[in-house]
Design brief:
Elements: H1 7-17, E1 24-26, E2 35-36, E3 40-41, E4 51-52, E5 56-59, E6 73-81, E7 95-99, E8 111-114, E9 119-121, E10 124-127, E11 137-138, E12 149-151, H2 159-167, E13 173-176, E14 180-186, E15 190-191, E16 208-209, H3 211-222, E17 226-233, H4 237-244, E18 252-256, H5 267-273, E19 277-280, E20 285-286, E21 292-296, E22 299-304, H6 308-327, E23 337-340, E24 344-345, E25 351-361, E26 364-369, H7 377-383, E27 386-390, E28 395-396, E29 401-405
Parallel strand pairs: 6-7, 14-17, 14-18, 15-16, 18-22, 20-25, 23-26
Antiparallel strand pairs: 1-13, 2-13, 3-12, 4-11, 5-7, 5-8, 6-10, 9-10, 19-21, 21-22, 23-29, 24-28, 25-26, 25-27, 27-29
Helix pairs in contact: 1-6, 3-6, 4-5
Length: 409
């Protein structure tokens, strides 16, 4: 059997195979959470024309330049402009126009008096102080100018960005669809979550819910992928080969279980029978050493060990960078790190992925290990927010920093 590959080499091999899912044009509202394939820019100014930011009166500042408290300027009010008003006529010298918030400032006017700053009487206003040009006026493009990039290529489209795209007349955006995923839990002892646990065909046989399907679905969806189907396959090589040979496979196919050394562990051989070419067979991490990956056409197959903690570790170490690549996200420039709150020692022999509870304290991301004799494995998995990467034989003391793998950030 070949020597296990390092985590870094495994990721490099897979990223050479992974390509962002082909972009397609979608309305901004349907692009939320997707990654922009190109820069998305505003197609119009907002506001499209100068507008008032207060309820008040549009004026020509030169008409009130001599206004004083004891010598007010009297202006006739001609009409009212609202947010929906279009193409207002030019303001006449010596007059004002009533304008509501968002209403257009008429040509010739260059300032707005708030209604509480003037006196209204008999269709006129009395102005008792001068006003600066631009007062309470938002210029065309004052909120966002035409051709301003709203979301750059390679960045996720946020709800607020989608709203601004909609406002600036962007009808469609080029975005990478979420990579599609299919999950298969292998084992005759498993039942799909929610199914009956008793085996009617084999009385006295107990099935256990396939918790890996819940775990991996949650991890994939948290990372921005979409899980299109899940299923349980018993320990039947022919059924597994048939499932892996399906013509409509998505970008990612995941099996859990069947990667050990017993007579029931035939996932790797079944993948080869189904036409997949191995990328690597084992990986030098713990837990998760018996993971394998393979490729057929545009589908990447990840064969994960059955223990949920091992699948959790393999997802963060190997699959998460691939999902980012398929989504069109750039590779992180530097690893994310966290400061340990407790001491921990890694045993010699492999790179260790240690379950951790993560917390932001002030400006520092901290990691509390959930390992050792005092933390049962399943409880540690339930409370973990990510994993810390420890090298073979490494000793960590409180305050030390190490690389963290998580879907939280």
């Amino acid at each position: 059997m070949p020597a296990p590959i390092s985590r870094q080499d495994a990721v490099r091999k897979l990223l050479r195979l992974a390509r962002p899912v082909e972009a397609r044009a979608v309305p901004p509202k349907d692009g939320i959470g997707l990654v922009a394939a190109r820069n998305v820019a505003a197609l119009c100014d907002v506001p499209e024309h100068a507008c008032s930011v207060r309820d008040g009166y549009a004026v020509r500042s030169e008409d009130v330049s001599r206004a004083r408290s004891l010598d007010p300027v009297r202006l006739a009010v001609n009409g009212c402009l609202r947010a929906e008003s279009a193409n207002p006529p030019s303001i006449e010298p010596g007059t004002a126009v009533r304008v509501l918030t968002g209403g257009p400032v008429p040509p010739g006017a260059d300032a707005v008096f708030a209604e509480e700053d003037v006196e209204e009487t008999d269709g006129h206003i009395l102005v008792r102080e001068p006003v600066r040009p631009g007062w309470y006026v938002r210029a065309a493009g004052g909120e966002i100018a035409r051709d301003t990039v709203i979301t750059p290529a390679g960045a996720p489209i946020t709800p607020q960005a989608a709203a601004i795209m909609t406002r600036t007349r962007v009808a469609s955006v080029p975005a990478h669809p979420r990579p599609r995923t299919r999950l298969l839990a292998l084992g005759s002892e498993l039942a799909k979550p929610g199914a009956a646990e008793d085996d009617g065909d084999h009385p006295g046989t107990m099935h256990f819910p396939a918790d890996n399907l819940v775990l991996q679905r949650g991890l994939f969806e948290a990372a921005g992928a979409v899980v299109e189907r899940t299923g349980v396959i018993p320990d039947d090589r022919d059924r597994l080969v048939a499932a892996l040979s399906a013509p409509d496979l998505p970008e990612i196919l995941v099996t859990t279980g069947g990667t050990g050394n017993s007579e029931r562990d035939f996932a790797f051989e079944a993948a080869q029978q189904a036409g997949f070419t191995p990328v690597f067979h084992r990986i030098d991490i713990r837990p998760g050493r018996n993971m394998f990956t393979a490729v057929r056409n545009q589908t990447l197959l990840f064969g994960l060990p059955g223990p949920p903690a091992a699948g959790h570790a393999c997802f963060h170490a190997i699959i998460l960078p691939v999902i980012r690549r398929l989504r069109g996200l750039p590779d992180p420039e530097t690893p994310r790190t966290a400061q340990f709150t407790q001491a921990i020692n890694a045993r010699p022999g492999s790179e260790w992925l240690v379950q951790c509870a993560l917390e932001i304290q002030g400006s520092t991301l901290t990691a509390t290990p959930l390992a050792g004799k005092t933390v049962p494995p399943m409880l540690g998995l339930a409370q973990a927010h990510g994993l810390a990467v420890l090298q073979s034989g490494q000793t960590i003391t409180p305050g030390d920093e190490t690389e963290i793998l998580t879907t939280l950030f």
